[in-house]
Specification:
Layout: H1 2-13, H2 17-36, H3 43-71
């Protein structure tokens, strides 16, 4: 598992903001495709799970962004 993180870190160091934007669009499209395949009766649970994951990941990312922006 550590080698995967090492490869990821090296990839990020060699990437520009455009590369990361493309990755985000790709993940967004994959999420849309996955969301379209969920049965109607399970959509509420999927929405709650997705909102939870979004909040848990977005808040620390934005906190880091504001910390870095404050240093500039």
């Amino acid at each position: 598992m550590k080698s995967y993180f090492s490869i990821g870190n090296k990839y990020l160091q060699k990437s520009s903001w455009r590369d990361l934007a493309v990755i985000k669009f790709c993940l967004f499209a994959m999420g849309l495709l996955a969301g379209m395949s969920v049965r109607q009766k399970d959509k509420k649970a999927v929405r709650i799970g997705a909102a939870t994951v979004f909040a848990v990941t977005y808040i620390p990312l934005m906190a880091k962004l504001f910390k870095i922006a404050g240093e500039e």
